Amino acid sequence: MSIPFVKMHGAGNDFVVLDAREQRLSFPAHVVRRIADRRLGVGCDQLIVLERDPEAQADVFMRILNADGTEAGACGNATRCVAALMAEESGERKVTVRTVSGLLPAEIIGPGLVEVDMGPPRLDWEGIPLSGAMDTLHLNLSMGPVADPAACSMGNPHATFFVDDLEHLPIESIGPVLEKHKLFPERANIGFAQVESPTRILLRVWERGAGLTLACGSGACATLVNAYRRELTGRSATVVMDGGELVISWNEEGRVTMRGPAETSFVGALEEWV
Questions:
Q1: pLDDT recorded at residue 26
Q2: Residues 208-220, mean pLDDT to the nearest whole number
Q3: Whole-model pTM above 0.90?
Q4: 3-state helix, strand, coil in the chain (%, to 5)
Q5: Active-site position among 44, 75, 152, 221
Q6: Are 149 and 183 in contact (CB under 8 A)?
Q7: CA–CA distance, 265 with 175 (Å, rounded to integer)
Q8: Which residue out of 44, 81, 152, 216 is catalytically annotated?
Q9: Is 75 a catalytic residue?
Q10: Domains with residue ranges and CATH for the chain
């Protein structure tokens, strides 16, 4: 049996999307790792499995499996890609995607351009979560050239370090250690942000379970939230990552929106060997 897939990306953050709405598909961790492998499989940052919404409130339920086989609670770039697929299927501009973290309304703004309401951030230490009660705006955490991150949750835990020179940070050596720091009982996505102006942020993210990616949608959202809390930006900014740009806003009602690209790279089929 072969299983059709769509290879998509949002600003370079790439996904293998499989449809399990009509037939149940199960992907143990070792299979996910094989598919995600860029030499032995298709290659992706996350495997996305589309399922029927068990509560029949959303157009689709999106299950997110990291490249290491672990499950994630949210992925902004994948949400835009799945919203684009669902909109193409239904012919509607507005769709709703459910993840394990909740409902995410999305709207097609133009060709290959999608805006998603990512909901309100969680700013309390329990909701992120952190290992104990502490000020989430200033964590007592440092490693090498970085220190004093801010933390929040956008459906998954994020810590943002603000730096002066993003280009020369040894992210590939400090990222894996910070991801698994004892402060983060569920591990964390570690963002490194350089604020160029109140409306422009440079960002690189070490994603838990995926490593350094070309873009991280929830990480961009968390970065804007934390930058605003630190009085470094306004409520809206363009976040520039290695794979492209996202426009992030945190409105007066407390909800975070993300606007950015969603593109299809190619389609194919997974054979039974996976």
A1: 87
A2: 96
A3: yes
A4: 15, 40, 40
A5: 75
A6: no
A7: 28
A8: 216
A9: yes
A10: 3-117+261-270 (3.10.310.10), 142-254 (3.10.310.10)
